[in-house]
Amino acid sequence: MTEDGGLGTVAVLRRYPVKSMLGEDLRASDVTWRGLAGDRVLAVVHRDTGKVASAKDPRLWRGMLKLAATGSGPLVKITLPDGTAITGSDPGVDALLSGLLGQPVTLTATPPPGAVLDRADPEEVLRNGLDVQARIEVGRLGAASPEGTFFDFAPLHLMTTSTLGRVAGLSPHGIVELERYRPNIVIRTTAPGFAENDWAGRDLRIGSDLIITVIARTARCAIPTLEHGDLPRDVAALRVLAGHNRIKPRDALGPQPCAGVYAQVLRPGQIRLGDIVHPA
Questions:
Q1: CA nearest to 181, candidates 128, 219, 124
Q2: Domains plus CATH for the chain?
Q3: Any residues with CB less than 8 A from the CB of 184 and at least 6 apart, and which?
Q4: What is the reported pLDDT for 74?
Q5: What does the buried/exposed string (b/e) look like for 194-219 if buried means 16 or more CB atoms within 10 Å of the residue's CB?
Q6: How far is CA 3 from CA 8, 9, 189, 275, 277, in A?
Q7: For residue 80, what pLDDT is reported?
C-alpha cells in the first residue's frame, strides 16, 4: 500500500484505438462509461462472416498485431509494418487492410448487430502452433460493456506491476513486456505475487473523481504469446500463467490462466499518471 493507505499508483495508461492493433501510451485521459476516451473506437470486421477480427484467433488475425493505431475518432492513424501510415477515414483503408490481412475486411466504428468474435483455445495453440486450426469458441462482444462498443468483455482492463514482476520472475527469459497483455491501466504496487487476484468485487477510487468496480479476473487467450510489432513470439507469456495462476476468472467459469482484472465505471472522471488508487 501507499503511505496514505492506497493500493498503489497509476504507472501506465494505454488505449487501443483499433481493436487488436497495437496501442499508445497516454499521460492522462477522460474516463466515461465506455472506458478511456478513444479506446477501441474502431474495429475490423470480416465482410463475409460479419465477425469482428481479433488476434484471439491467431491463425487468421495475428497480422493485426503488426499494425499500430494512434489518435481517436475517424482520424485514427494506422501505421503499417514498413512505417507508412493511413487514416481510418481514408477511402482506401479497407482495400489496404484486406490486402495486408489476407481477408476481405471493413474498418468500422459500428459493431454489427449481435457482434461476435472467434477465440481459439489458447492451450491448443500452445501445443500445436499458430497455423493448426485450434478449437474455436464463438463469443459475443461486450457482455459487461455499454452497447455499441468493441470490448471483449468490460470497458477497462487493469494490471499491477506486482503481477508483471511475478510473471517476469517465473519466465525463463527473466523479463515481461506489458504490451503483450494489453492493459488500459497498470498500477504500481508493492504487494507480492498476483496482487489483483483478490480485487474482484471491490470498488476503487482513482485520483479525485473516478470510481470503478472490479468485476472479474482476466482469463488470458493466445494473444500474449504472439509477435507484437517488433516483439518476438513468447510462449512463456501464457505458460507461466497456466502453471502458476490458473484460477477462476469469475464464478460461472472454471479455472483458466489469468492475469489482470476487468472493471466497469461507476463514476466517470479523469485519470492521470501518478494518481493514487484507493479502495472506494
A1: 219
A2: 8-279 (2.40.33.20)
A3: 13, 14, 15, 35, 36, 39, 156, 157, 158
A4: 72
A5: bbbbebbebebbbbeebbbbbbbbbb
A6: 9, 11, 12, 13, 12
A7: 96
- In terms of pTM, does the model score above 0.90? yes
Predicted local distance difference test score (pLDDT) of residue 1: 64
Q: CA–CA separation, 139 vs 165, rounded Å? A: 31
Res 73: pLDDT: 72
Question: What's the grid cell of residue 49?
Answer: 462472416
pLDDT in tens, 141-152: 999 999 999 999
Q: Write out the H or E segment, with its range, that includes residue 101.
A: helix 93-101
pLDDT at 3: 60
Task: Dig out the grid coordinates for 148 from the structure.
Answer: 455499441
Rg (CA), the chain: 18
Q: Hey, what amino acid is at 201?
A: G
Beta-carbon neighbour count of residue 229 at 10 Å? Answer: 13
Rounded Cα distance, 228 and 224, in Å? 8
CA pair distance 35, 143, nearest whole angstrom: 14
Residue ranges of the chain whose pLDDT lies below 70:
1-4
Cell of 216: 472479474
Q: Using the 8-state DSSP alphabet, how is residue 51 labeled?
A: P
DSSP of 108-160, one letter per residue? ESSPPTT-EEEEE-HHHHHHH-SSS---EEEEES-TTS-TT---SS-SEEEEE
User: In the block, which residue shows the cell 508483471?
Assistant: 164
Residue that has been written with the C-alpha cell 518476438 in this structure: 232
Contacts of 15 (CB under 8 A, 6+ apart): 23, 24, 26, 29, 36, 37, 38, 39, 40, 184
